[in-house]
Amino acid sequence: MPDEFAFIAALRAIATHPAAAGLTDDTAQLDLPAGRLILTSDTMVAGVHFRPHDPPDAIGWKLAAVNLSDLAAKGAKPIGCLLNYALSGEAAWDHSFLAGLNEALVHYRMPLLGGDTVAMPQGSARSFTLTALGGGQASTPLRSGAQPGDGLWVTGRIGGAGFSPDGEPHDLARYLRPTPRLSEGQAIAPFATAMMDVSDGLLIDARRLAETSGVAIAIDLDAIPLALPDLDPIAAATAGDDYELLFTLPNGTNPPAPATRVGDVGVGSGLHLRRARRSVPLPASLGYCHGA
Amino acid sequence: MPDEFAFIAALRAIATHPAAAGLTDDTAQLDLPAGRLILTSDTMVAGVHFRPHDPPDAIGWKLAAVNLSDLAAKGAKPIGCLLNYALSGEAAWDHSFLAGLNEALVHYRMPLLGGDTVAMPQGSARSFTLTALGGGQASTPLRSGAQPGDGLWVTGRIGGAGFSPDGEPHDLARYLRPTPRLSEGQAIAPFATAMMDVSDGLLIDARRLAETSGVAIAIDLDAIPLALPDLDPIAAATAGDDYELLFTLPNGTNPPAPATRVGDVGVGSGLHLRRARRSVPLPASLGYCHGA
After folding, report:
1. So what's the ipTM on this one?
2. Is B292 on the interface with A (CB under 8 A)?
């Protein structure tokens, strides 16, 4: 059990926010003003959400980033987080994971407030959960608010974290250390009718937005801002791990942060693709489907 | 993936609180008045925190109960929770787990607000995380507040969930479906100088309380309220899974909920045992040590 004590000591060194009480209690105590709390929690499993050979510091960073990306998509400001960690049995791996996680927590100012550390039986896949709390705005854009007539927009560039035929990501840094679009999300949220992050692929996530809003969404493949100039738009738009923001704005409203208009919201249902103004069929797979 | 869709449909049927937005978003949105938020999160792993053959509905109940017990120990009132669930690969097992979890959530009024559902690679141990939010009182008793001169008290009876030599719990219902002491905790919190729940054993948890408060704690073995009359006090006080509340009150203060005085807080450090007013040595193991 000495590995566990050392890991908890390392957690305590990170958890310096008063609400964490030095991780000496079973709970965190957080005094909050009245307002809207945004809650999100993501679990990452080896072999499902990351490759077992990915560097542990990048996996730690990514666990923070994917939760921060969910806060970003609601225009929320990070308040704090809880880490549920399954010890790997390799102390150096655990400490490297924690260093990468902490880099993201410091960079995006999301203090570690608590959580739980457990040992897993030998042979189990590594899995980790982070639960993030954010302070929301008066108006929170959900997946459900898109209206016929809205424009569909996306921040940044799409497809960089996708895999080339040689089995490696096009842009390794982007795959390993995604950037949650927190400031963009905070700027966009007051104007967006709907917003979500692109985690599983632009097409699959756009279809989810259409379904939840009860609208049709048409995407112009020619308009998708590609991370690399020679990417195929369909391949880019079905690759996961972009962590850009996908949102809808009333027609005529310009986004308050750099973004590209990639389509339109209409009456009806489902996802529709266009290329050179002509309808094209949907690909067999719209993205990465590993969970809800 | 049909199992996953059915499971998520079952989650949606449970998550009826408006903040859950029908689990159609990546986040929950919770409007809160100003005040103190109490946060806790527990992960349970098969073979570590429960027996793989325990009934799945009891494991679901227990995951809720252990988190509720942490809220109880701070005098907090449940607000809501997030579930991070690893699908077992057996749909009936998953649904039974969820039914037991939901029973506890309904009974203790802690709405399900969100979380994450993942698939684990074959052969991995089942593990589940619940993160609970509670509304705290102005004064939150931590582990750190015990003062020399205080009395040490415990609610309920101790040792019932311990294992007899035949490898079965003395009181199976108590082991499978622990009762979080929410109303007791809310009544006691304004008066307690320190409070925690007894999850790993009365002795190990009392020593943690002594360490965090920087005091000595003496326990009278004769005073421990035993769950069964023929239990050995040392065996009872080193068995885990009681989920009773252990707390300290200024000398002369009577507890506002049924409880038994089991010892005293003094100047110094460490845990000390007495029997018939004479000091007795500590046993080799003070309780169940499976994590922090």
Report:
1. 0.94
2. yes
